[in-house]
Write a structure and sequence with these properties.
The complex is a heterodimer. Chain A is of the alpha/beta class. In chain A, about 35% of the residues lie in helices and about 20% in strands. The chains are: A alpha/beta, B mainly alpha.
Chain lengths: ~280, ~300
C-alpha cells in the first residue's frame, strides 16, 4: 500500500453548463454544476435516470463539449472558455457501462493497448507490467483468453487493469456494475477497493445503487433531476479499509436512510416532470 | 550432447500441439459423420434428384416434358465418349471450369481490394461519404445486364468485359456491407480506444477494421455469390469459354443434358468458393468462434 498522498488527480468541475439545441428548443442537461474532487478521492454521483450525470462524465472524458464553465485537472484546463471540448486522453480513462474490452483482442493485448498506442515504453516492458498488474488483481492465467471467454465480473476487472496501465489521474466509472447480479457486484466492490488501496487514484463514479455508492465512496454527490446540479453532498465518514461488514453497521444504515430520502425526492420530481411533459 | 537434448525438449511442445490438433480434427470429423447433419444434407439431395427423375421420366409432367432427365444427364456426365462432347472424362470440361474460376477469382480479388477500403472510408469519414455515397447508391441498383453494352464498348477482347461485369457486382456488395459494418461498431469501443490514447489512425486500424470484419465477411459471402451470377451473364453474352458459355451454346445447339451439367457444375463450384470465404472468415475471427462456442 502506498503511504504518501497521491500527487495527481485533483479534478475541479466549475460552474459547468451543458444545453442541447439552441434558442427556445434548448434543453439544459447540466445546470451550473460545481464539484471539487481532491486527489485520490472516490467521489460517488447518484441521481435520477436521465438527469445528465453521464453528460457530465462525457464532458470530462472529452466525448462531448460543454456550453459554459470549466473543467480543470491538476491545474490544467481540460475544457473551458474558448475550448468547449476536452481532448480525450489516457489521464482520464472511462470504464463503460456495458464494458468495452475489444472482443477481437486477447486479454493481454487489451491490457497493453493504452501504453502501446501511446508508445510509452518498450514492448517487453509493457507486457511485463501488464502481467504484474494482472497478477496483483488475481487475473493471472487468462492473458491468452478472449474477453468472450471470461465471466462478466472478470471482464470488468480486466477493464480496470487496462485503465490502470495508463497511470491515469482520474478513473471515470459510468455505472460499470449495473448489468451484474448482486452477488458478483458485491465481489466487484471489494475488488475495486483492494485495487484502490494499492493505487489510490481519483475516482468519479456514477451509479444508481445507493449501497454501492456508500460502500465505495468518500463522498456522495446527490444530483437533482434534469437539469442536473448537485443537490446535496454527503460525507461518508466510515473509515477505510472497508469490508462487507460495514453494510450492517448502524452508521451505514443511517447514511443509507439520509441518501435515499434525498434521492427519492428527486426521483419523484423527475417522475412528475415526465408526466407533465406528456 | 546436452544441446541436442535441450533442442529436442524445446521442440517437444509444438510437436505435441500438432498431434493434438490432428487428433482434435479427426474427432471433429467423426462427430460430424455421427451427427444427423451429413445424412440430412444427403437426404435433401436425394429428394430433389428423386423429384427431378419422377417428374421428367416417370410422371412426364407437362412443364417438364422438354427437360433432360436425370438418367440421361447422368449417363452423359459419366460417359467416356459423351454424345454432346462434354463429360467428366473430357478435358474441355475442366478447361471451362478453370476459365470461369479464374475470372471469378480475378474479379473477386479486385472487388475485395477496392471494395473493402472504399467501404471503410465510407463508414469512417462523414465528409467522404457525403461526396461519394450518392453516386455509389445511384450506380449500385443498375443491373449487371444493363452494363453489358458499355462493358463491351469500354474493354476490348472477350476476357476483360466479362471480368469487369463480374467485378462490378462483387464490388458493390463488398463496399456496402463494409460500410454498414463500420457503422454498426459500438461507439464505446471507439471511445475506449480514444481515452486509452489511440490516435485516429490507430483507432482505424485497431477498432474500425476488426470491428467491421464480421460484416466485411458477410459482404464477401454475398459478393462471391453475385460474382458467379454476373460471370454467367457476362459469359453468355461475350466469351469463348466458361460455364456460362457452355450453358448458352448448349441451348442454341440443342445439347440439353449439357445445359444441366453446366448448371450443376456451377452450383458445386459456387458452393466451394463460398465455403472457402467462410473458412477464411472463421480463421480471421477466431475470437468470435469462441464467443458462440461452448456455453458457460
Amino acid at each position: 500500500m502506498r503511504a504518501e498522498a497521491p500527487r495527481r488527480g485533483r479534478l475541479s468541475i466549475e460552474d459547468v453548463v451543458k444545453t442541447y439545441g439552441r434558442g427556445e428548443a434548448a434543453v439544459a442537461a447540466v445546470d451550473h454544476c460545481s464539484i471539487e474532487i481532491p486527489a485520490g478521492e472516490i467521489c460517488m454521483v447518484v441521481g435520477p435516470s436521465g438527469c445528465g450525470k453521464t453528460t457530465l462524465l462525457n464532458a470530462i472524458a472529452g466525448f462531448h463539449d460543454i456550453t459554459s464553465g470549466r473543467i480543470v485537472l491538476d491545474g490544467e484546463t481540460l475544457c473551458g472558455p474558448g475550448r468547449p471540448q476536452a481532448r480525450p486522453g489516457a489521464d482520464r480513462v472511462v470504464v463503460f457501462q456495458n464494458g468495452a474490452l475489444f472482443p477481437w483482442k486477447t486479454v493481454l493485448d487489451n491490457v497493453c493497448f493504452g501504453p502501446r498506442m501511446q508508445g510509452r515504453a518498450g514492448a517487453r516492458e509493457i507486457e511485463q507490467r501488464a502481467r504484474a498488474l494482472m497478477a496483483e488483481a488475481g487475473l493471472a492465467g487468462c492473458e491468452r483468453s478472449y474477453p468472450a471467454e471470461l465471466s462478466s465480473g472478470t471482464r470488468r476487472r480486466v477493464e480496470i487493469v487496462r485503465a490502470l496501465m495508463n497511470d491515469p489521474s482520474v478513473l471515470l466509472f459510468d455505472e460499470p456494475y449495473r448489468a451484474l447480479d448482486s452477488l458478483t457486484r458485491s465481489v466487484m466492490h471489494e475488488s475495486l477497493l483492494q485495487t484502490w488501496y494499492r493505487d489510490p487514484v481519483t475516482i468519479f463514479f456514477i451509479t444508481h445503487d445507493l449501497e454501492e455508492a456508500i460502500f465505495l465512496g468518500h463522498r456522495l454527490v446527490v444530483m437533482t433531476a434534469r437539469p442536473c446540479r448537485p443537490k446535496a453532498v454527503i460525507e461518508i465518514d466510515i473509515p477505510h479499509p472497508r469490508d462487507y461488514g460495514v453494510l450492517t453497521s448502524p452508521r451505514f444504515r443511517a447514511l443509507m436512510a439520509e441518501a435515499s430520502a434525498l434521492v427519492r425526492e428527486e426521483a419523484e420530481q423527475a417522475f412528475a416532470a415526465g408526466d407533465a411533459e406528456r | 550432447m546436452s544441446a541436442v537434448i535441450e533442442r529436442s525438449l524445446a521442440a517437444e511442445p509444438p510437436a505435441a500441439g500438432q498431434r493434438e490438433r490432428v487428433a482434435r480434427a479427426a474427432h471433429a470429423l467423426a462427430a460430424w459423420i455421427a451427427s444427423p447433419r451429413p445424412w440430412l444434407a444427403l437426404l435433401g439431395f436425394v429428394l430433389v434428384a428423386g423429384f427431378w427423375h419422377l417428374a421428367v421420366e416417370v410422371w412426364k409432367l407437362p412443364r417438364f416434358a422438354g427437360m433432360p432427365g436425370l438418367v440421361a444427364t447422368w449417363r452423359e456426365f459419366t460417359s467416356r465418349d459423351p454424345v454432346y462432347g462434354l463429360s467428366l472424362y473430357t478435358p474441355e470440361y475442366y478447361v471451362h471450369i478453370l476459365a470461369s474460376v479464374r475470372r471469378v477469382a480475378e474479379a473477386f480479388a479486385l472487388a475485395t481490394l477496392l471494395g473493402v477500403p472504399l467501404g471503410l472510408m465510407l463508414g469512417w469519414s462523414r465528409g467522404f461519404r457525403e461526396y461519394v455515397f450518392p453516386v455509389f447508391e445511384m450506380l449500385r441498383p443498375i443491373p449487371i445486364l444493363a452494363w453489358v453494352p458499355l462493358a463491351i464498348l469500354m474493354f476490348s477482347g472477350t476476357e476483360s468485359p466479362v471480368i469487369f461485369l463480374t467485378f462490378l457486382a462483387s464490388f458493390f456488395a463488398t463496399a456496402l456491407n463494409t460500410m454498414l459494418g463500420v457503422e454498426s461498431i459500438d461507439e464505446s469501443y471507439v471511445r475506449a480506444s480514444r481515452c486509452l490514447g489511440a490516435r485516429p489512425w490507430q483507432v482505424f486500424v485497431h477498432v474500425v477494421v476488426p470491428g467491421a470484419l464480421p460484416s466485411i465477411f458477410t459482404g464477401l459471402q454475398i459478393s462471391v455469390g453475385v460474382a458467379w451470377f454476373s460471370l454467367v451473364a457476362g459469359e453468355m453474352v461475350s466469351g469463348e469459354a466458361g460455364l456460362g458459355y457452355v450453358i448458352n451454346t448448349s441451348y442454341t445447339n440443342v445439347r440439353y443434358p449439357t445445359i444441366v451439367i453446366g448448371m450443376v457444375t456451377l452450383g458445386a463450384v459456387g458452393y466451394a468458393t463460398s465455403a472457402l470465404v467462410r473458412l477464411a472468415g472463421r480463421w480471421l475471427m477466431r475470437w468470435r468462434a469462441r464467443e458462440h462456442g461452448d456455453a458457460r
